[in-house]
Amino acid sequence: MAGGVKKPVNIFKLKNLGEPKEVFNWRLWFAVISFGLLGAARGVDEGLISGAFNSKDFQSRIHYGLYSKTEQANIKANVSSMVQIGSVGGALFAFLICDKIGRIWATRQLCVLWIFGIAIFMGSNGNLGAIYAGRFIAGLGVGQTPVVGPVYIAEIAPASIRGFCTCIFTGFVYLGIVLAYFTNYGCQVNLGDTTPSRWLVPTSLHIIFAGLIFILTFFQYESPRYLVKQGKNEKALEVMARLRHLPEDHEYVSREINAITVAHHEEMEATKGAGWLGVIKEAFTIPSNLYRVGLTIGAQIMSQWSGAGSITLYAPDLFELLGITGTNENLLITAVFGIVKLVAAVLCALFLVDVIGRKRSLLIGITLQAIAMIYVAGFLTAVPGLGNVSKGVAYHLDSAELAASRGAIAMIYVSGFGWALGWNSMQYLLTAELFPLRIRAFCTSLAMTFHFANQYGNSRAVPNLLLPVSNGESLRKGRFGSLPR
């Protein structure tokens, strides 16, 4: 059976769930946090790359000033979005790796790819080819994190708190963003803008997180569901007992393992033991599974084109467009934006998603995002000169426009809260809860492939969209996606 959406619960009243009190123990939380840390992979990259790219030292290394404005926008877009391109491949093959070598070893190999790619990026010495290659390889690892992390968490978490545990993964996305934003700000203030340390120190956060996750895997156990799938029922029983902090012969542990085993046997009987082609056939030819696939892919497409990912990725540029002047002030405002998103994610995980339910959380989040973006779009339409430079002088906001500008900045924060409450939580919860065990890894992988493909599309476009209107002619002549020679 697929894990359906559960009745909303208050995670502060776990004793009222009818579960043995031993179930909610340190081993469970340690495992959830260890794999939840995988969420920081995307958060760190989204929070770091724009600030690192805007470093004067980084720009001088790639001779950024020698290119035209349009070429500069293309370079920035390509460098920033190259991780998303790699992530498409990483997410696409994550299910094969997950099912072939297990969740633990899948995590270890993605950490190695992640570290290797970032090492190439940091040692590129201004070579654009090496920069692109390094970020692409890192993306191959990063792209696997939203498949491996939520799948493992969903497979070890008790059904009653699965939503909360999965939200821990999304919470670490925001923790990564906050650390990245504040590291950028701290290095800008204390190290200056002309030293290599200005962008190398923040970038090292990638290696710190990947190394920490790699080490933590040696203190974790393989998913009981994966072990059952491999025919290792005794080992699965042992691991489940450890995770639940109960004896192996306890009724609760036996019931969980039996349910997993029966579900697996039913699925194998239905598919007659077919291989990976059978998994694909099961996902697309069984109407109920096809509906689930369509639902999750639709969620990924709509969530990414809500624009929240691009706001995070290019937050310093957007705040500058809205009237924040000065590099330090811009980075500080951006860092505060990261805190708002982190607090929103924590509040959603603790008080909202499992308390008010998935559907209400999603609808409220979408509404907040829509209101915020309508206001920002209206402000930028009303002040078309904002962001343009005429004869070396930037557009100056009058007193009325300045107040509206501050309102637009506040609305960016509101959109971040809405994103944390709505789409960002639901895109992981849906894939974690909807699919049967046999096709879960494949369907999660497919959903994340669409996630990164669409994230690449909007993140690649934004730098060009932020160019002044005067640059529009060169874009229409086909240089939108060109790479400078």
UniProtKB/TrEMBL annotation:
Keyword Transmembrane helix (UniProt): yes
Gene3D superfamilies: MFS general substrate transporter like domains
GO molecular function: carbohydrate:proton symporter activity
Residues in the signal sequence: none
Principal location: membrane
Keywords, alphabetical: Membrane, Transmembrane, Transmembrane helix, Transport
Protein name: General substrate transporter
Pfam families with a match to the protein in the record: Sugar_tr
